[in-house]
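Human: If only I could read backbone structure tokens as easily as an amino acid sequence. Take your time, and here it is.
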Amino acid sequence: MTPGADNAGKQLLLVGGGHAHVLVLEAFARNPEPRLHITLVSKDPLTPYSGMLPGHLAGTYARDEIHIDLERLARAGGARLIRGEAVGFDAGNRRVRLKGGQVLSYDILSIDIGITPDLSGIAGATEHALVVKPIGSLLERWDRLVERALGPDGPRRFAIVGGGAAGICLAFAVSAFFRTRMSDPLHVSLIGESGAPGINPGMRERIARALKRRRIAVHTGDSAVSIDEDGVTLASGQHVPADAVLVSTHGAPPPVLAGTGWAKDGNGFLAIRPTLQILNDDAVFAAGDCATMVAHPRPKAGVFAVRQGPVLARNLRRAIRGEALERTIPQRDHLMLIATGDGRAIGGRGRFLAFEGRLAWRLKDFIDRRFMRRFA
């Protein structure tokens, strides 16, 4: 079929400004689809790159270095950007309702709206903690925390709840940022129920040594059950004193998905096929943390959304043209790099590969900056 032959007036609607959709826009900017109308719905005109968030919090990257300009990218891709938030999906009539009442129609829909924090098991977290996701609201609250902490009577004891890779990165970042800016003693604690799931033993040993070297107290095998103005109470009854608490735990599906008839996994995330289509709706695709490929489930991590982006772009183009779709199976192992905030990083892949040092940090910095240059 000639590209664009049957595309006149067709509507491609992208809901959410996640990593996969950023790559979709880049693909259509490089190779436009004639007569196709593309609309991107995003609450914010800038979207942060999660891989550089810890580096920004540590003071390594400026705020503008970690953000992608969605308005400029949409314009380059021939897309219209609508500042808004989807609050309802009408799959039968192929419509999306936005907060404020605007209704958008689509021929093909793609959803990449991330996750919301699951704070159901931690009493007081909403009132007394900074939650990592969504990143946009975290950055605003982080700025206020920094202003308080750098004052004479500001917080000096910080606790990070979440023992996975994100929590570990956050602990290193908080320690790095404040230790270079405070003369008073600083106390940083990392609280995680299971240590570091998904990280191989070699990396785990290196991370443990680095945490000790950076004087970060670690509480593993004991989950947080409540947070108040004095700190964090653990399941064992132990209390970890803290003036400021940051939470990076498991996420939950966005509430807007609950009212749809689309297929979901056992946790309420959109269930998708290897083509990235929702199981029971050929006209709807989903990517990133809001979706689970039920035949090949993987952890909720930005690396998988980035890998999905090019496949999603090709399949959206194929769906618009009426062509057969491409299937993808996400890799089981991926390179993991954790910056320790001292010009070094710890890396690993699979069950056995583990390494650390300044070259590991340079590798991470190179990979992240190369990714961001694609959208400059």
Summary: The first strand starts at residue 11 and ends at 15. Residues 118-249 form a domain with the FAD/NAD(P)-binding domain fold (CATH 3.50.50.60). DSSP finds nine helices and 26 strands in the chain. The chain has two domains: 11-115+253-321, 118-249.
